[in-house]
Amino acid sequence: MASEEVVFTFYRVRQCGYYKSGEQIPAFGGLVKLLEDVCEWADGKTLRETSTFEANEKRLPCYLLNAKRFGSDWLLTIWNEIPSNGQKVPSIHGDSQFGKDPNVIMNSIEEGSIPGYATYFWFLTEKNVFATIRLRNRLTSQKSLRHYLYSFMKQSSSYVVSETVENENGETGVLIHGYRLDPSDENEKLVHYFPRFDTKLIRNPGEHDIIRQNADRIRKIERVIELNLSTPEDLGLWQQMLVKINLRRKREGALTTKVRYVLSPHVSLSDINNMIRDWEKHQSENSDYGFIFEGDPNKTHWLSNSLARAEYNLEVERDNDELVNVDLLLNELTGKRSIILNSAGV
After folding, report:
1. Do 166 and 48 sit in the same domain of this protein?
2. 195 and 249 co-located in one domain
3. N or C: which end of the chain has fewer CB atoms below 10 A?
4. Are the C-beta atoms of 159 and 16 separated by less than 8 Å?
């Protein structure tokens, strides 16, 4: 085992279950039931069979690699697929010279394997919160987890009422009729319920109040955006930016890249509130707004300083370069639970 610095960012689970239209309290379901349900559903499946949604222009599939439970604490390991041409993943040496045609290395993908990276999520069900666990990889892919669990609730949970149908081409599919507390009980009325899984970053609003109170002193604004190059949407935006600055290069092997720019606009309190709302809406751990006040040019006030976040060194044992031993990790989490939560203010 070795000591590694781990970064935790905490989220509140605001809604989880099956809701009637307009209702804020679920008719049935909940976080514990969801985690139990998805683990039971995944048991015995191959990794490829644990995907709950298909690839589209916004995201690639992710898969449930592992799940461990100790009391009310759960540790989920998600495998996130990255782009490839089917047989190989391209990469470029980092010391390639700017402006020169680089040597592109095509790394072979073993037949039947899924290229990707692992992310870890720590659920504390009695608090209705979870944390992303950032180890060596900067990506935490919280949005993929959220979509994964929502898609599971929508079409694969134990509450789904469905039947297998055959289309005109002879292909079989699943037709979902709705949701019941007990799908096998035909006497239970089939009410129109909506599955929901909604999360929100936990924040300490103190830093935001300081920025609002000093809106008239703001002289510079820094904007930092971290793009996830494993998603078609962010990859397309990054390639457009390269074209804009006349830098045409083939995609490197990195999974993320950061874009930073500085503005010196005149802003009002209304503008500041709009930036805060935009930042809160997108729920990004690594994208940020920074504000520099007149008379204090060496200090940047970042919106992310308000996050319920903690850094702590844990003893981690790696099974390989990408995966850690989840049993030992969960043991470390539960043993250091109080320290980590207090540090994050949760």
Report:
1. yes
2. no
3. N
4. no
- The residue type found at 175 is L
Q: Are 145 and 121 within 8 A, CB to CB?
A: yes
Same domain, 216 and 176: no
Domain span at residue 226 reads 205-306
CA distance 169 to 265: 59
Query: Tokens at residue 218, please?
Result: 């703001």
Q: Are 301 and 293 in contact (CB under 8 A)?
A: yes
- Are 220 and 320 members of one domain? no
The two three-digit tokens of residue 256, written as one number: 């993320």
- DSSP collapsed to 3 states, 121-170: EEEECCCCEEEEEECCCCCCCHHHHHHHHHHHHHHCCCCEEEEEEECCCC
Query: Is residue 134 domain-shared with residue 86, that is, in the same domain?
Result: yes
Contact residues for 276 (Cβ-Cβ < 8 A; gap 6+) = 208, 211, 289, 303
C-alpha–C-alpha distance, residues 281 and 227, integer Å: 16
Residues 153 and 44 placed together within one structural domain of the fold: yes
123-172: pLDDT as tens digits: 999 999 999 999 988 788 999 999 999 999 999 999 999 888 888 787 88
Nearest to 204 by CA among 337, 290, 333, 310: 310
For residues 192 and 328, membership in a common domain is answered with yes
DSSP string of 38-107, one letter each residue: HHHHHTT--TGGG--S---SS---EEEEEEEEETTEEEEEEEEE----SSEEEEE-TTPPTTS---EEEE
User: What would the pLDDT profile of 57-106 be if each residue is shown by its tens digit?
Assistant: 888 999 999 999 999 999 999 999 988 877 777 777 766 666 677 777 77
Residues 68 and 97 in one domain: yes
For residues 346 and 133, give the distance between their C-alpha atoms in angstroms, rounded to a whole number: 15
* φ, ψ dihedrals at 125, nearest 5°: -70, -30
Domain count of the fold of the chain = 2
Q: Between the CA of residue 295 and those of 57, 217, 218, 219, what are the distances in Å?
A: 46, 8, 10, 9
For the chain, what is the total number of helices (H) and then of strands (E)? 7, 15
